[in-house]
């Protein structure tokens, strides 16, 4: 049980280099190919009451996108150097729709958190990705260039999203030397981890259950604290949200993890 292709989102920023290196290490670990993807869309907003974009400006905007894609490709080639099973695909397109289409080729998608100064014409929103991919999404904090994945924390409650996350994470869980099933009491009681522990046992994966209270802290914070307490470098959990007027309204835990989980987080919806 493995991933055949690890796909990594690439932009021309320096932050992409560490993400590519991490994705390359994972591809090596799983015997997978590495696929870099990038897209940019020219966006020109004339001032209010100003003239529309003319025939001279549009080709120049496209050329700027092509230049950005070339720089992203160079970043990928440099960071992924030394691997024989690399591939690259890019286009002048909206990043979200392009990445979602390319995800049909991948078993795992690796991305980072866009910086506050990065416009949507260059990078896809992480929340939109996790809700649309239909693939497990590994969100990598900035500056992290390696994921050992030998100690994994599994955020658990018996929901469709959490069950999907467990199934998607099996390649990681089978390689792990320690798996902890984390239940957080957020006032509604905790959900027993026994069913998922029995499920994992069927794959030869030994897991233990741990519980904690979210009293005095948010559920996401308590979840991350327990993961760090057990020295986990990977947190697996379901992603919860629904569409509202073309924007995703996330549950509090998912929103907080997307914004600032300090360790790699594997999310499934």
Please describe what this structure looks like.
By secondary structure, the chain is of the alpha/beta class. It is about 35% helix and about 25% strand. The strands form 2 sheets. It has a 10-stranded mixed β-sheet, with helices on both faces. A two-stranded antiparallel sheet has the order 10-11. Strand 4 (about 110), helix 4 and strand 5 (about 135-140) form a beta-alpha-beta unit. The longest helix has 23 residues, at about 55-80. It starts with a strand and ends with a strand.
Label the structural class.
alpha/beta
Number of strands: 12
Strand content: 15-25%
Radius of gyration: 20 Å
Largest sheet: 10 strands, mixed
Strand order of the largest sheet: 3-2-1-4-5-12-9-6-7-8
Q: Estimate the global geometry from the Cα principal axes.
A: globular
What is the count of DSSP helices, taking H or I runs of 4+ residues?
Answer: 9
Helix-strand sequence = EHEHEHEHEEHHEHEHEEEHE
Distance between the termini: 20 Å
Helix percentage range: 25-40%
Average predicted local confidence, pLDDT: 86
Which stretches of 5+ consecutive residues score pLDDT under 50? Answer: 245-250
Helices and strands, with pairings:
Blueprint: E1 5-9, H1 15-30, E2 33-40, H2 57-79, E3 86-92, H3 95-102, E4 108-112, H4 126-132, E5 137-140, E6 151-155, H5 160-168, H6 170-175, E7 178-185, H7 194-201, E8 207-213, H8 219-229, E9 234-238, E10 241-244, E11 247-250, H9 252-260, E12 264-268
Parallel strand pairs: 1-2, 1-4, 2-3, 4-5, 6-7, 6-9, 7-8, 9-12
Antiparallel strand pairs: 5-12, 10-11
Helix pairs in contact: 1-2
């Amino acid at each position: 049980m493995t991933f055949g292709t690890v796909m990594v989102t690439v932009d021309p920023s320096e932050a992409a280099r560490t993400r590519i290196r991490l994705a390359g290490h994972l591809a090596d670990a799983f015997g997978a190919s590495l696929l870099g993807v990038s897209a940019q869309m020219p966006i020109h907003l004339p001032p209010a009451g100003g003239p529309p974009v003319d025939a001279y400006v549009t080709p120049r905007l496209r050329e700027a996108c092509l230049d950005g894609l070339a720089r992203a490709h160079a970043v990928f080639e440099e960071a992924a150097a030394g691997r024989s099973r690399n591939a690259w695909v890019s286009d002048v397109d909206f990043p979200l729709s392009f990445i979602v289409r390319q995800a049909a080729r991948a078993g795992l998608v690796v991305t980072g958190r866009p910086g506050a100064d990065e416009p949507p014409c260059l990078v896809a929103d992480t929340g939109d990705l996790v809700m649309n991919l239909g693939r497990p999404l590994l969100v990598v904090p900035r500056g992290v260039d390696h994921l050992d994945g030998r100690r994994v924390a599994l955020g658990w409650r018996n929901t469709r999203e959490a069950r999907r996350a467990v199934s998607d994470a099996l390649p990681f869980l089978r390689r792990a030397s320690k798996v902890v099933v984390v239940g957080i009491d957020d006032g509604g009681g905790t959900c027993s981890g026994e069913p998922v522990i029995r499920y994992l046992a069927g794959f030869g994966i030994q897991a233990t259950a741990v519980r904690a209270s979210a009293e005095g802290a948010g559920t996401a914070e308590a979840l991350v604290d327990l993961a760090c307490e057990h020295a986990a470098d990977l947190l697996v959990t379901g992603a919860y949200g629904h569409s509202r007027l073309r924007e995703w309204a996330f549950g509090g835990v998912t929103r907080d993890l997307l914004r600032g989980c300090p360790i790699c987080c594997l999310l499934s919806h």
